[in-house]
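INFO  loader      accepted 1 record
INFO  loader      residues=126
INFO  predictor   begin
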Amino acid sequence: MVFWIIIIIAAAIFQYVVIAFNIPRVFLHISSVAMVISLLGIVYHLYSWHRSGLTLKRDRKRGHELLGEIMRREGYCDAESILKALNNQSRGDLRLMGEILVDMNVLDKEKLNKALMIQKEEDQKD
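INFO  predictor   done
INFO  writer      dumping tokens
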């Protein structure tokens, strides 16, 4: 997402230069298109995070423990693998973290289901 913000800032600076130095207006239109595309990139990024349920912090209201924390605590996978899965999600992968870890052959479906059951049991306690 930082990439899109940098593009917007660069396009805004470029538009200022175009206007200040009487550069042909076609360049103003090109930079405007770049800004719109960047805004669409930011919206898509935020939508994909929302759709995948990506949260970086524990839900403090319910005390909900994140699946990655449970899998690491139970010894099902290491922190590096969890970070790789989160990185995939942040780059637009819409799959759930468990699905990504299974596809990476870090975790089998049985352990994933156990971790999900632990998470569900902990949610029901609260």
